[in-house]
Amino acid sequence: MQPAPIKAVLSCVFICLAIGGKVALAIPEMLQAITHSQFLRGALLRPTFRTTGFQPLWNTLHRLSLWGMNMGPGGGVESSGEQWVLQQILRDRPAGSPFVLFDVGANKGQYATEALALADADLNLYCFEPSPPTFQKLTSAVGGKRNVKLHNFGMSSAESEATLHYHVGGDAEASLVCRDLSHWGIAQNQQVSVKLRRLDEVAKELGVHQIDFLKLDVEGHELAALEGAGTMLRDGGIRTIQFEFGGPDIESRTFFKDLYHILNPHYTLFRIVYEGLDPVREYSEFLETFVTGNYLAVSRLAKPQPLAN
Predict the structure, then answer these.
(1) Under a CB-based contact definition with an 8 Å cutoff, are residues 217 and 107 in contact?
(2) pTM of the predicted model, to two decimals?
(3) In order of start, what are the domains of the chain with their CATH numbers?
(4) Measured by CB atoms within 10 angstroms of the end CB, which terminus of the chain is less buried, N or C?
């Protein structure tokens, strides 16, 4: 295919995106028609479509698809879908007791600030940030509030001391594994010693028997943090979990399969999209996409069941 036809096809795609909702509603029917049409299926599977000339088209559609699946756009709590999820979880929270939120990887308090804005009066917020310099910023943002408890350590599979790697001005990318960010022109050449603990033990010490919402944003250390919460995961002590999967997991050598298998026996998984959820019904290699996205795990033991409607 020559550049002009490729541009024509892409123009059609952008027009469809601009039209928006009505086209989106028709996509499942279109895919079903293709699946059941031997002619269309045969045409799309022809080797010709896998030649060099078609690759600009497929590469562009691939990136657009990831973006449309809410993977990679980043942004704040409002635009990533995280705010919507928290609003729905708060809506479905059990009556008669404060909402317990563990913010693990609280950074400078961006998520904590949003949570307080949504449910200040009914919220018991526990923030965990291992980096001493970033912890000072967290304290400035949300410290001193009666219902906020700040802790200067992180979560892992065992209690230990570890090295946190970061670059100047890069609090959000700080990681327990030194990341190769040379393709961004970044070198994680700063280090600080941090303390790590097991979530099971921390919750017990704090007298917290039920966590309504666990937000995990620990730059590739999510699996280890969940391994340190094995008892609470098994017993339904954590009703809902939001976690990231993406670029940092490359250096930590974590696969989505690892996260799926530790959660799936007790939780139903969803990928967070803008103002919605897409069910992860079963594991597939297509889930191993290291373009960062957010996911939600809902305990099957939770009563009432969050996001049931």
Answers:
(1) yes
(2) 0.87
(3) 3-68 (no CATH), 82-299 (3.40.50.150)
(4) C
